Amino acid sequence: MQPAPEQSPHHAYPDHWEADVVLRDGGTARIRPITTDDAERLVSFYEQVSDESKYYRFFAPYPRLSDRDVHRFTHHDYVDRVGLAVTVGGEFIATVRYDRIDERGRPASAPADQAEVAFLVQDAHQGRGVASALLEHIAAVARERGIRRFAAEVLPANNKMIKVFRDAGYTQRRSFEDGSVHLTLDLEPTAESLAVQRGREQRAEARSVQRLLAPGSVAVIGVGRTPGGVGRTVLRNLLGAGFTGRTYAVNRAFAAGQATIDGVPAHRSIGETDEPVDLAVVAVPADRVPEAVADCGEHGVQGLVVLSAGYAEWGAEGRERQRELVRQARSYGMRIIGPNAFGLINNAETVRLNASLAPEPPAPGRIGLFTQSGAIGIALLSGLYRRGAGLSTFISAGNRADISGNDFLQYWYEDPDTDVALLYLESLGNPRKFTRLARRTAAVKPVVVVKGARHSGSTPPGHAVPISRIPDATVSALMRQAGVIRVDTVTEMVDAGLLLADQPLPAGPRVAILGNSESLGLLTYDACLAEGLRPRPPLDLTTAATPQDFRNALAEALADDGCDSVVVTAIPWVGEDGEAESGDGEVLAAALHTAAAAGPAKPVAVVHVEIGGLAEALAAATSTVAQPRPAPAQNPPAPAARTGSTTPPGPAPAPAAPLAGAPGTAPLAGAPGARNGRIPAYPAAERAVRALAEAVRYAQWRRQAAVPGKVPEFLDDTIDEPGTAGLIDTLLGPDPDPRGLQLTPDQARELLGRYGITVRATLPAPDPDAAVAAAARLGYPVALKTTAPHLRHRADLGGVRLDLANETALRRAYGELTDLLGKPAELQPVVQSMAPRGVDTVVRATIDPAAGAVLSFGLAGAPSELLGDTAHRLVPATDRDAAELIRSIRAAPVLFGWRGAAPVDTASLEELLLRVSRLVDDHPEVVSIALEPVVVATQGLTVLGASVRLSPPPARTDLGPRRLPNY
Fold first, then answer.
1. Per-residue confidence (pLDDT) for residue 473, from 0 to 100
2. If DSSP states are collapsed to H, E and C, what string results for 200-226?
3. In a 10 Å sphere around its CB, with 0-12 CB exposed, 13-18 middle and 19+ buried, how is residue 849 labelled?
4. Chain-wide mean pLDDT for the chain?
5. What is the pLDDT at residue 269?
6. H or E element: which one contains 98?
7. 3-state helix, strand, coil in the chain (%, to 5)
8. pTM of the prediction?
9. What are the distances in angstroms from CA 682 to CA 40, 511, 618, 958?
10. What is the mean predicted confidence (pLDDT) over 465-472?
11. Helix, strand or coil for residue 492?
């Protein structure tokens, strides 16, 4: 391919094209535009490329670049000619270039929308996914510059490059011409190309985490020469856990002749080690970290755990130090946990890594734990340790400047050693990506989240991430839509985690309660009702019950098809002398274990009061042999709603289809052998029932997720997407105001009408005569209402008069309105024809820069606003989302015939929600829609008021090429 001479004026350097990416092997690289300063780098890069790769690039022997070549390949206008390079350690490892061409293949400028593209990857870095990442980025650049198609000429023997194009997921055409393969790619993203991109992202990010969790060798940088200190503690923990790889101690202050410390090789730098180091734990003061990072990067270290403090948690200077740390590490292809981290643990038998400061290392188990706080991490590890729970992996990420909870969701998604993911988060750097990853992970294993800093309105110190203005209640609703189990405290997280890790998922909300205390049974019964479960009357075994009685009762309850789970309550026995006895907790635990192991796989939880040894014995697995996962239960009963109120009618729950998943998928109930032998024990009935209720709701979500909803196709017949796009362009104009544009009522009515949303017309009434004329035009009866901002939608202030049947009533109402509230110029009154009686509701859609488009629904009026009774779903919403949205508010019974009223037309309401969702999803310039009120009658609905705001579309980081965040 021969570059063209300059076609268009030079544009400024596009720094927004710069990006850090994770490659297939888990290492990182930087993609950036090539500049005129890159001549030496380009020549050096080309010298390291094999003759075969050069031949594939130029279709002829091309041993070296001429000065003219170097000039052409480093001088771009960033419009018609663009070159990108992939760098590691500041040096090129790959390049890509496009040149805009016309339909005859000659150099061209816009409006030509095709470009010729060519890649060159250094042989040592082929197979790392470099070309695939470059294709994503050069395609995004091309689309930004108005290029819609790529053309490429590839030699038939260049199978690797042909595969890169073929596997990208773009619509493409292939032909064989003049001894080469001619490829044409349409650059418009497709469902397949997006799936390919996200699949590659998952594998790469999971691999980058795996490299940190399963290193072949670890160096602790900053090991003190005397006992104590952070570095020496980490080294001690590494050795105490029995790490299976090589371990090194590094401190530049070691004496030249010192060979070992604590029995491991001692060195003054990474460069002095005799073998490669995979992971470095950095425990030196912040001002010495750059030196340590450079030492690691220059000697091939793959990842860092930075325990050092003094970064973003210390203010502006620390934030800049943190950014520089990330830039430096990524320039060498390394990823970072931290800074200000507590460390990481991998309990896999083949690794046994404890690179942390944890004073009580957890036992091996099936729970993965991620926390952004070292203090919370200590508390969680201690709590899990006391309750006999085990972990597969533990990560305390500190300021999480690089590796985040999203990365570990990518890893846990297909980790066979993790059945449950627990996350304590104080900030969400990319909420849109988090909900996407959480939804996918939750489809195969539970994800339990505690969100700290919910009400502070700011980011915790050290977390240099964008601040989302979305309310916490909305965040919670969106998490639950994604299948995330959102709890309020770390105690609740541990409670839920233990049940989910140790027990199968319940098939429904029916709970059997049995025990030797009538009072404790009644407390459990009440707790079940409060959580929306359906408890059976408690079975009182009396205080004289023996462990054998418990065993028999539990076996009978598990065998009963009328219950989905069992809560066992136990108090100490009372002896014949009237004194309480703690009893033999181990004997009772053995009885419960025996019954649970022999019965159908249903979750069992135990509530106990001061029975010595019971909790510990229950936490002990009866077998270390992996048990087979049962088949999911077919056609389970529908779970109840979250609260104890009557559940509004709605679509039948999806059948319990077999759930596709990864190894470690949490089982549904129905067959023996689904539990691992441990039975979770709780000191209070409320805690046990709350954990069980979360499992019930999650199991219901899993069943529904197995048969996902869809956007009904019939909407396409009444939607004018191209016409709406043209109208939006006209309204925004050629130079749109970045602050946005509030549409007039007529403009909003026209825009919404193109998506089949009809807004009832209003006519201005600046005086009584104008009001009468408007009523005559619309037809009686009419409504008279004010539109002043301070009175809008405030019927309680007297700004609305309804059912005005004639001119006399209208003039009287006009006089009353102006006498009570002010002059017409202040009130801005309007006249509107009356709508059929029904329930007043509100439908809104807003764009949050971090979370994306959110669809909201609630009843109109002050009570709903005061109680925060609004439901939310992410856009695009499916038919199932719409149905759940209107049924998930607490006031939903009003829509379904509460107190003998006629049910309203919820089907029309669901259709309206889907139309609004489709509008904001199709046109990101629509940043806000408010339909208020929407009067839903027994047949049909009426939109009485609408507000629409347009703005230049915000950046969609979730749809662009893969890139690591830069905060």
1. 76
2. HHHHHHHHHHHHHHCCCEEEEECCCCC
3. middle
4. 87
5. 95
6. strand 91-101
7. 35, 20, 40
8. 0.84
9. 67, 16, 11, 41
10. 63
11. helix
